[in-house]
């Protein structure tokens, strides 16, 4: 019945809400049509329209996830190659200052900067993090994309939520699920640990916000990409769970595209949780 992801995805609301366990409806549709994922994992799909085409069972789940992981990895690797190709045309000596990076001289012809507390060395065909090759293609996409964008116009200090950025409707939920909710749950009752972990990412306390929350921090994800992370700790007596909100500089889309921005926030959450 449905052989192509684009056919199946029309049965979803295409809201990318993440409830099925996939970050995007299209990824879920690819898992269903190509990998045997159970379509009932999206609570919004009208299963009656599917007839008996897809049985409601979990037997295909593992295969579906593996297959979609493979497809996404292939897509990521292709994007890394594309971005490397664009970086090949850049003069790193000229590009370094607008990006807030250091140029390592003609022998290495590499850019040096920090990303979430790690030392980055980026050449035209390779990225190192703390002296080791960056294994995850998503890290390479983020870093090459940053270089490709050219550094923007610097941080203006006016903070906005993802929802205030253009074309961000489908990303607000992803940011909440993969960054804000994880940090809120992971650091509930652990404000001191949050201070310690953020310091390890080169982050600093934002004193201007601390009266209205438990803690607020500016985190330099990249030289010209700072995120403001605001944390309210749990108040068990009032049945109030810990919460986190991430804000960006109002001109952040001069620095990165919205996909990379969401990934940068997701990576920030992962690094913080690794460090607990
Ligand atoms: S549950 Fe998955 S497929 Fe359904 S709307 Fe949300 S992200 Fe899309």
From TrEMBL:
Residues 1-61 form the 4Fe-4S domain. One of its GO terms (molecular function) is 4 iron, 4 sulfur cluster binding. The keyword Transmembrane does not apply. Keywords: 4Fe-4S, Iron, Iron-sulfur, Metal-binding. This is DUF3786 domain-containing protein. It comes from Candidatus Desulfatifera sulfidica.
């Amino acid at each position: 019945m449905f052989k192509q992801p684009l056919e199946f995805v029309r049965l979803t609301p295409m809201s990318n809400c993440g409830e099925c366990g996939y970050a995007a409806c299209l990824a879920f549709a690819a898992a269903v049509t190509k990998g045997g994922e159970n379509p009932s994992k999206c609570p919004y799909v009208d299963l009656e329209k599917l007839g008996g085409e897809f049985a409601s069972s979990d037997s295909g789940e593992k295969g579906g996830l593996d297959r979609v992981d493979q497809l996404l990895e292939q897509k990521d690797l292709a994007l890394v190659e594309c971005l490397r190709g664009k970086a090949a045309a850049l003069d790193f000596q000229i590009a370094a200052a607008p990006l807030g990076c250091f140029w390592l001289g003609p022998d290495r012809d590499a850019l040096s900067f920090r990303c979430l507390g790690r030392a980055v060395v980026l050449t035209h065909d390779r990225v190192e993090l703390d002296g080791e090759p960056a294994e995850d293609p998503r890290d390479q996409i983020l870093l090459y994309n940053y270089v490709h964008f050219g550094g923007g116009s610097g941080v203006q200090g006016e903070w906005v939520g993802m929802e205030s950025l253009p074309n961000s409707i489908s990303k607000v939920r992803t940011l909440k699920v993969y960054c804000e909710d994880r940090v809120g749950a992971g650091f509930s009752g652990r404000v001191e640990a949050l201070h310690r972990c953020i310091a390890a990412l080169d982050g600093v306390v934002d004193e201007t916000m601390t009266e209205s929350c438990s803690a607020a921090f500016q985190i330099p994800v990249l030289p010209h990409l700072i995120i403001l992370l605001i944390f309210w700790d749990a108040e068990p007596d009032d049945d109030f769970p810990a919460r986190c909100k991430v804000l960006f500089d109002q001109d952040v889309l001069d620095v990165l595209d919205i996909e990379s921005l969401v990934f940068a926030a997701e990576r920030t959450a992962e690094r913080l949780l690794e460090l607990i």
